Structure formats: structure tokens, C-alpha cells
Predict the 3D structure of the following.
Amino acid sequence: MSTKLLQLLRVCCLWIVLWLVLSLAIGTPLAYGDSFTPIFTTVGCMGACGVPIGAVTMFTPETGTFTSLTFAGLTDSSVFMNAGEKPTDQYNWDVEVVVSTIPPFPLELDAHIDESGGVPPMCVGVKGTSSCGTLTWAPVPTPEPSSLILAGTTLLGMGLLYWRRKKVSPTRLAPSTEKR
């Protein structure tokens, strides 16, 4: 094969590999191991309804997901969502401040998150004591390490191509006219 044809094949192969890596990086769907921020509303609550504060949560659909809610200064850090539930599902939440059954009988928070199937809850909110509503999840924007690596690799590859083009002169690429 001629030298020009080999160089053309090398450049084409490089661009095909870069295109494949880029398409795989862009085409990968949002993983369930990503972090999500809860967005609470008081849809379905009548009365003096309050909204809890939720922790940023990492979904693990295989084993179930734990999160924590804070309401009226109390925190329930053992709120469990069943295995198989996804951040794209629709949820209802409810919280209630109750008296503990363990002496000295302090106040504690009883919080629940359930998959709703789109049906809003019904409850009467009492300020600082109980509330309910709907819950959705928003992904936390984080730069993916793979996209940063991809950008760095692309810049490195383009720099190498530029350096190689400057180093190899057009006269060296021409077939030699000398007889051997």
C-alpha cells in the first residue's frame, strides 16, 4: 500500500474511534446511582401544611433506598423506599410528630414516602405537627469524569495531529523518485 493511503486509513480510524467514544459517552442514560434532590409540595394537604426538608439521595433500585427527612426541627433518618422504585416514579409523603414510646417519651418524627401512582394524598395539616403532599426528584448536576476524560483525550489527540502535521513536511510524504 502507498504511504498516503496508510496515512488516510490512520486518520479515518482515529476519527471513527473518537466518534464511537463520544457517542457512547453522550448516549449513556442517567444511572440510578446518581444523586437526586427531593422537591416537596403540599398538594392534597388541607390546613396549616408545612414542607419537610429532605436529604440529597442516591437511588439504589436493587436493594431499596434510605433517605432522611427533617420536619419541625426533628429528623427521621430511616425513611425507606422499596427496591425497584425509581427517581422518575411519582411519590406521596407524610410526616407526623408523635410522642415516643420509649421513656422519657420525647417527641419523634414519623415520616413515610410511598409510591403514589399519580394519586395525591389527603390529610389535614396541623402546623408543626403533621403534613403531607407529593414528592418528585430532580437530578443533581455533576460533571461526569468520563466527559472530562473524553474532552482531555480529544484535545490531546488534536494536539498530536497538529504536531505531526507540522513535523512531517509535504516533501517527505511524496514518493521518492530515486531509483534503488
